[in-house]
Write a structure and sequence with these properties.
Layout lengths: L8 E6 L21 E6 L2 E5 L5 E8 H7 L5 E3 L2 H7 L13
Antiparallel strand pairs: 1-2, 1-5, 2-3, 3-4
This protein binds zinc ion.
Zinc ion binds next to loops.
Length: 98
């Protein structure tokens, strides 16, 4: 059961490499290996790259997030508000920056 005292979505910058299981996480598109915005959405942790690729990272658990990122930069109580704030609501889907 979700704990109503906790925000639904938390975001935190992480400038250093991440290797929660001893394997450094890298972007599958551009091979970047550091400088992540991390998103904790409910029980899942997502990584977003500067190249705008994002993915669910199963090596990063909610527990890991809680242990290492105790002071998130942004928090939202409402899923839809967070998605709009993060431009994850589909508004920019398919937009190409030339
Ligand atoms: Zn990338």
């Amino acid at each position: 059961m979700p704990n109503p005292a906790r925000p639904v979505i938390r975001a935190v910058p992480h400038p250093d490499p991440l290797n929660p299981l001893g394997i450094t996480i890298a972007c599958p598109l551009c091979d970047a290996a550091r400088d992540w915005p991390l998103l904790n959405i409910r029980a899942h942790v997502f990584v977003r790259c500067r190249c705008a690729h994002e993915w669910h990272e199963p090596d990063l658990t909610r527990d890991y997030f809680d242990q290492h990122f105790t002071d998130p930069e942004n928090e939202w109580d409402d899923f839809n508000t967070a998605m709009r704030a993060l431009a994850f609501d589909g508004l920019l889907a398919g937009v190409m920056w030339n």
